[in-house]
Input
Amino acid sequence: MDRAERHFEKEEERLKETILRLGAAVEGSITDALYALTERDPEVARKVLDRDEEIDQLELECDRICTDIIALYQPAARDLRFVIAALKIAPELERIGDLAGNISERAIELCEEPQLKPLIDIPRMAAIARQMVKESLDALVRLDAGAARRVIENDDGVDALMDQLFRELLSYMIEDPRTITRALRLMMVGKYLERIGDGATNICEMVVYLVEGRVIRHGGFQTSGSTPNG
Output
């Protein structure tokens, strides 16, 4: 192995480590945001908002490493697919971190008002969405397209719980207009969780692309001449 190849492998490993650090920070934000909401703890919610700068910087670091790899090493085949996947996965993780911040903002607002109802569907949605993010990163690390496809299937569960939550909160608003503000904030939390599930799905679609060279979003297409190992 020549010097250039060693440098390339070192940069590729640094990119993987940075994505995993970004993913860990995002997972932590989701966990803390839901704790702040369910335990009515605004201080934890504010810590999530403070973590946003760390997540932003990690996303920028991923972008810089990808740019350097393309400019200096001109990777081909699977190596290039990995860099392309990383360029798309890192912003997706950053957006998920933003959504956790949005949940924290709603948690702070809801802490200032009487609790509308026991939270049942939202913690269920959060558990599925958080697990989807974790498993999407596991699939990336293992380069496991099968695991990625299984994560994608879980997105329907988040959507079904969102529909259920919407109907329940709508009934509260119809029966008592004084609940409208609180119900709308909880609906927004549900929507943020639904989008986190969508973000994990997008990551998994990129894992399938990385492993198989196959684009599966929007019906997808098989890239010309690509093979799983090409």
